[in-house]
Design a protein that fits this description.
The complex is a heterotrimer of chains A (304), B (334) and C (439). Chain B has 15 helices and four strands. Chain B is an all-alpha fold. Chain B has one domain. In chain B, α3 runs antiparallel to α10 and α13 runs antiparallel to α14. Chain B is globular and about 55 Å long. Chain C folds into two domains: 212 residues, Rossmann fold (3-Layer(aba) Sandwich); 166 residues, Rossmann fold, CATH 3.40.50. Helix content of chain C is 41%, strand content 16%. In chain C, the strands form three sheets. Chain C has a seven-stranded mixed beta sheet, with helices on both faces. Chain C has a five-stranded parallel beta sheet with strand order 2-1-3-4-5, with helices on both faces. Chain C has a two-stranded antiparallel sheet with strand order 11-12. In chain C, α2 runs parallel beside α13, α4 runs parallel beside α5 and α9 packs parallel to α10. The chains are: A mainly alpha (304), B mainly alpha (334), C alpha/beta (439). Chains A and B meet through α3, α4, α9 and α13 of A and α6, α12 and α14 of B. Chain B: It is found in: Cell membrane.
Chain lengths: 304, 334, 439
Amino acid sequence: MDILISSLVAGLLIGSVFALVALGLTIIFGVMDIVNFAHGEFLMIGMYTGILTVQVTGLDPLFSLPVALAVGFALGLLCYVGFVKYLLRGPMVAQLLGTFGLMLFLRNLVLLIFGSEDRGIHTGILVGKSLDLGMGVIIPATKLAAAVLSVLSFVAVYVFIHKTKLGKALQATALNRQAARYMGIPAERMNALAWGIGGATVTAAGALLVNFWSASPYVGLLFTMIAFAIVALGGFGSIPGAFFAALVVGLITEIPGIWDFFTYTFDNDWMADVPMNSFKYTGVYLTYFIIMVVRPRGLFGWKL
Amino acid sequence: MEVVRNAFDFSDFPKTDLLVVGCGLLFLLFFPLLPHSTFAMATMIQFLMFSLYGMGWNTIGGYGGQVDLGKAQYVGIGAYTTAVMLIRWDVPFWVSMPAGVMFSVTWSFIIGYPLFRLTGHYFAIATIATSLVLKDVFEVWDFVGAARGLEILATKYDAVDFTHLIFENDNYYYYILLAFFLLGILIINWFRHSRLGYQLRCIKDNELIAQSLGIDVHKSKVKTYALATAFVSVVGSFHACYIKNIEPEDTMSLDLSILIALMAMLGGAGSLWGPIIGAGILIPLKSYLKEWLGASAGLVGIDLILYALIIMVVSAVEPRGVWGLIEKIRARRT
Amino acid sequence: MMKRFSMGLAWCAALMLIAGGWLVPSPAAAVKEVKIGVIYPLTGGAAAAGRELRAGAELAAQIANEVMDGIDMDMAKKAGIQSLGGAKIKLIFKDHEGNPTLGADLAKKLILDDKVDGILGCYHSSVTKTVSAVCEQYGVPMINGSSTSPALTKRGFKWFWRTTPHDKWFTKDLFELLDGLAAGKVRGVSGVKKDDLQRLAAACERTEWGAHVADLIKTLAEQYGYDLKKSILYAAKSADLSSEVRSLKAARPDVMLFASYTSDAILMVKTLKAQKAKPKLIWGQDAGFEKPEFRQTLGDNIVGILTRTVFLPKVADIKPVAGQVNQLYKAKTGHDLGGASARAFTGVQTWVYALEKAGSVDHAAIQKACNTIEIPGEQLVVPWAGIKFASTGDETGQNVLGSGLIGQYQKGKDGKIGLEIVYPFDLATADMIYPFPGW
């Protein structure tokens, strides 16, 4: 029983962080119909930002969040103004090619600077601490903190988009670009804003993740795929959808644990022989594929 | 008969192009006779392999406009079929290669059918997803060696073994691949002139119009996808005999899929010479940059940074790639 | 027309330029030296190990090439290879990044372009597999110092020799230790029953090496009568191992066994701690578990963890020559010799002996020399009985005189954490800590 509860809790916790990862992708997609393949690379940069902040300032890793937000916002803005803007004139193929180029560029830039060794944060007040819920269910403190901060950030962005004037302008652009322009909303600036927010949120997620997830230049792609799966599940452009979808995807990555639970419950040899933990992320990819084929709009989607 | 005529019909290209192609062919034909290092030879073989991958990708991705980022799964199926058959049952390459094509095409029908309900980015991401799922399966499948992969021991065969395609001297591999390469150009040239080719270009321009013209869009796409798959699978089989050690991480990685697509797109998607130009620029660039800057100067990743910059500039300035640039210049001259 | 024609020519030239940037092989060097191609993971996930391997190999070459006082080794007393007129050893390093295909390419390049006389490498068993296949194809001798997958010497290769003992011996050592615990043979531990150690759980990385280790653990557990409750293969270079650790924990093992490279080993122990897993023993299959980074990053947390190895600084207490070399190595790198560097050292040393015996750089002569070579144990830094390769049978090319150690991390009197020998029992340098003290 303990493994089942542990797995479910772990799935929900990591899912909360995934929500912040996917948020940026869904905002950018909603506002300007472009898929950013470099999304995971932004997250990877967030991880390295976290590590660097800790190393340079000696602060606790949790304080790297504001730094990561600033870096991410600047990075998103820079990418848009310096590069993505020019892609928009071209066809969809050029956008794909371009953001792929961006992905390769960022990944290898980090590789050049930091090398390919895995790095992690091994200091800080929360590292090594954990919360014992009894019955063998143990929650590492770093994960809990990351999940809580992630949900708070998510809510903050949600409130920003729904309550502030700027946010509403962004939303209007997403709903109907042409109409928004007639209302005097500068579409170009909204695009830049979307990239800024998109970059900031995902970079922040990286800074949170690095507390318990080791960073390497190659880590981005996995998160790009996870974010795609979440956005597909939650509906392209839908923010609340992304949150619930992220929790579901978090649980999907914990299928091996749930499988273990049933293996021990039924004491089944056949089940024990299935190398389920090798398929940790396969479920995520499959989810994307199945959702897209069955319901191309996404489960809660409104935009296509 | 018409097929053959179409395949050899290059009359729609200007004479300068054909002159360049002729010179290029002469160079390719006599390259092994020129003084060269093994490294240069390996680079040339890579160039031919990626040209073929690109040509395959180009049918569905270039002419059809469906950006496929999962080609590596077919490289994997081709390579694994050949390797498994060779190691377990000593099957000659010339039997296992068609078998590999058969498996690949079957798989392409299975996933292509639902896949082509999607378009645009959704399609592109879905192809990544299928490729990754297949890779995960191969990584735990003991029959094909799981994650430790399969090894073909060259010492078990003669130094020159045409039936199993095992050679000590790379020149043999080079010429066999060159033959595939020329055949590939002819097949693509046929495809350009074929009914399917025209249908696909129509679909790329506007799917609704294509539909209203009575084209079965879905069927055309799936058919072309199978053709693209066959190309990639053949080279995958070759790869197994040439590299002699295959692992999921190597043959089925997403990086390979991306490289295939990027090269074709960079050279010019939807043109006959595009993938060849793309591979001709990027493969030597990548190998030599890595050799000069990466390994010796310790600047790991600098090759791919320059590589990425080229891709970014091309996509922002001229999305039709190098071939688009050439056509633009040419249009300005006349 | 003329214009178009000239443009065409320009294109031709451009095409030639692009395709023809080949390197013409450089002429053979005039100095008399023996070139050994060394293929190691100098960058990539195992870069830390690569640095150690390189330093170890370089030190051995230096000792062989110069006359060095104060080292009781034959090769330190002479400069260069005597039977080749004092020819110097020149190591040409190449970086395989942990990629088997790249490794094979590099081997081809070393053999055909650089015309090396032999190959040394490659650490990762998966890379050694492809590189040795290339060497076998071209008939170039290869000595392997540190890849431990048993399959490597099961292929009947004629050009491949391995100095290190392989995982079957190491894993057997582990079960001997477990049996020894129950039999009261271990220094400082008594009153352990076999039932206390009955349940095993293993996590190995999903590579050539890890997969073989997992198979060995399974077969040996059956032979020795232990119950392997859970065995998982995880993706190498994982970023997150928490679900794997939960899965291991759910099996309620008494002993946890791992085969991981450095970054995974660190992450694994960190996750075990976060999940408060508390088995009675934690055992690592060398690699990541004995790297300086492992100790530096995790600090006090690793006290009580066991790792198999072939060398640890305490060997210097038993073998003076190991201490002498260790001092040189420490002056050079700031670290003590470890399993990786000591074996790289031994690999180069074996090359020196083979060349000395062959008296020629002719491949066939070297092959003959390797098959008949006998290096006495007192010449080696590693605590083996010597080096002698099996030239026939199903372990062709395997050194039959090697042996392994099991070390345990303990806190010394100076507060520093280091490895103490706990197996073989007669070499033990400290009382074993049992059970694992927890976090």
